Amino acid sequence: MATLLFHDRYLDYDFGPEHPFSPTRQEMVVHLLEALGHPIDPVEPPVATEDEVRRVHSQAFVNKVEAASDGRPPPQAWDYGINTGDVPVFEDMDAASRGLVGGTLHGARLIAKGTASRVLQLGGGLHHAHRGRASGFCVYNDLSVAIDALRDQDLRVAYVDIDVHHGDGVQFLHYDDPGVLTVSLHESGQYLFPGSGDVEEIGEGAGEGFAINVPLAPHTESESYRDAFERVVPYALEKFGPDVIVAQCGADAHFQDPLADLLLTSQTYEALFRDLLSLANEHTDGKILCTLGGGYHLDAVARIWTLLALIVRDRELPERIPASWREKWGDQLNDPLTPSLHDPDSSFDVSRRSEIAEHNQQTSTQVLELIAPYWY
Question: Which are the contacts of 17, defined by CB distance < 8 A and separation ≥ 6?
Fold first, then answer.
C-alpha cells in the first residue's frame, strides 16, 4: 500500500504565470486522477520548521529567503540565487518552500518509523538548491533535508535522479557522505543547465566513489536511455546496499519538453517507474520515497505523473483520458490534449542515432570503471 502526500499549500510555490515551474502541473495531476476514478486521498504533512530547513541550509540563506517573502527583493539577493530569472521572489516564498520541504521530510519520517514503505510526495524534487543559495527554480532542497533525516536514523540512502537536469544540489550537499549514494542520469552539462554532472564527479573524502553521474548526449532516445539505466543503476544499488531509495522523478526528459533535448516517451517513464519499484523491492524491502521535479510540457507532465501515481498504488492503467478532463484543461491551456495516457506511437528523425547510442554506452562503461576501485 502506497502513501501519497499532498496539501493545497503546495500550490503556493508559484513564481508567477509566465514561469515554467507552475503549480498547474500538480493541479492537472490531482484532477486527472479524480477523473479516472482514482482520487489521491492524501496524507496532509506539516510545514517544515526553520530548524528543519537549516539541517542543510545556512542561516544566512534562510534569513535572505525570509526577507524576500514580502515579495520584494532584499539587498544582495542575487548572491543567494534569488531575484533571478529562474528564482524570482514572491510573497510568502519562505512558507511556500517550507511547505514542500515538510512533505518530503514527512515521507522520510514515515519510512524511517516503519509506518510506510512506498511513499509518493506529489511535490518537491527541488534538487538544484545548494547550502547557501537557490538555483534552477529551487529555493530549499527538500530532498536533502529528507535524506539528512534518514541518515540521522543510520539508514543508508540511495538517491536516484531521472530528471533531465543534473541533481547538483543533492549531490554536493552529500558529497562526502559514504552513507549516501547519488546516481543522476541527465542530459550532459556540456549542453544543459546546471553545467555539472560529469562522470568524474564521484564524491570526495569519505564519500569518494559514492556519487555517480551518467551524462547523456542530446537527442538520446528511449532505448539508449534504458540501456544506460540498466547498465548502471542496478549494479550501483547492489554494491551499495541501501536501506531506502529516494527518487526524483522529473518528467522533463520527455521528447516534448521545451527546456531540454532528450527524447523519452511516456512508455519509457512507465518502465522506469516500474524499474525503481522493483529495485526497491529487491534492495530495500520496498522502501522508496518518490518526489516530483522538473517537467514543462503540461500535457506530457500531467500524464507522466499520473502514471507514477497509478503505478505506485498498483492500479491498472486506463487507455483513455476522460473527455471532460481534456476539455477543461485544453480550454484553460488553449491547447488540445492527448486523449490517451500514453503517447501515440512516435518516431524521431535523429540523424546520429547510432553515434549517440554508442556515446552513451561508452559513458556508462566509463562510469562503472571509475567507481569500481572504490567498491572492490
Answer: none
> How far is residue 272's CA from residue 230's CA, in Å, rounded to a whole number?
10
CATH fit for domain 2-374, picks 3.40.1400.10, 3.40.50.740, 3.40.800.20, 3.30.450.40: 3.40.800.20
Q: Coil, helix or strand for 182?
A: strand
Backbone dihedral angles phi then psi of residue 173, each to the nearest 5 degrees:
-70, -20
CA atoms within 13 A on the CB side of 351: 0
Angle, helices 93-113 vs 142-152, to 10°: value is 30
Number of H helices, E strands in the chain: 11, 7
Q: Identify the three-state secondary structure at position 193.
A: coil
Q: Which amino acid is at 230?
A: E
Report the C-alpha gap between 290 and 35 in whole angstroms.
23
Point out the catalytic residue in the list 7, 106, 128, 219: 128
- Report DSSP state, residue 363: H
User: Do the beta carbons of residue 136 and residue 128 sit within 8 Å?
Assistant: yes
Residues in the chain: 376
> Residue 165 has what DSSP assignment?
S
pLDDT one digit per residue (tens) for the chain, 376 residues: 799 999 999 999 999 999 999 999 999 999 999 999 999 999 999 999 999 999 999 999 999 999 999 999 999 999 999 999 999 999 999 999 999 999 999 999 999 999 999 999 999 999 999 999 999 999 999 999 999 999 999 999 999 999 999 999 999 999 999 999 999 999 999 999 999 999 999 999 999 999 999 999 999 999 999 999 999 999 999 999 999 999 999 999 999 999 999 999 999 999 999 999 999 999 999 999 999 999 999 999 999 999 999 999 999 999 899 999 999 999 999 989 999 999 997 767 777 889 999 999 999 999 999 999 998 6
How far apart (Å, rounded) are the C-alpha atoms in residues 55 and 75? 24
Catalytic annotation present for 106: no
Q: How far apart, in whole angstroms, are the C-alpha atoms of residue 106 and residue 112?
A: 10
Cis peptide before 17 (omega within 30 of 0): no
Q: Is the full-model pTM beyond 0.85?
A: yes
Supply angle C-alpha 193, 195, 199, rounded to 5: 125
